[in-house]
Amino acid sequence: MLVYNGESVKITVVSDGNPDTVIQPGEYAKLAGELVGFATDMFHVLEDGEWYAKREHCYSGADVEIYNNRK
């Protein structure tokens, strides 16, 4: 799956079957698997915040866009 960081800070994505992956602001990373269960032990962002994954109508063209509700 193609994952997009929609925030202005780097994030570390932790997901089953992948090494911990740092994604710079506005950048993409290709991760293996379906990345189901966001905000669980299976797939989450390591940095502090109220992170959510957008899976539909992604502006970036990615399969998943990650954003933080806490600003």
Report on this structure.
This protein has one domain. The chain contains no helices and 7 strands. The model has no long low-confidence stretch (mean pLDDT 91). By secondary structure, the protein is mainly β. It has a 4-stranded mixed beta sheet, with no helix packed on it. The protein has a 3-stranded antiparallel beta sheet with strand order 3-2-5, with no helix packed on it. The protein has strands spanning 2-5, 11-15, 21-23, 28-30, 43-45, 51-54, 64-68. The protein is globular and about 30 Å long. 21% of the residues are buried.
Task: Name the features.
three-stranded antiparallel β-sheet; globular; four-stranded mixed β-sheet; 7 strands; mainly beta
Low-confidence stretches: none
Q: Fraction of residues in helices?
A: under 10%
What percent of residues are in strands? 35-45%
In spatial order, strands of the major sheet run 4-1-7-6
Overall shape: globular
Mean pLDDT: 91
Count of helical regions: 0
Structural class: mainly beta
Order of helices and strands: EEEEEEE
Q: How many β-strand runs?
A: 7
Main beta-sheet annotation: 4 strands, mixed
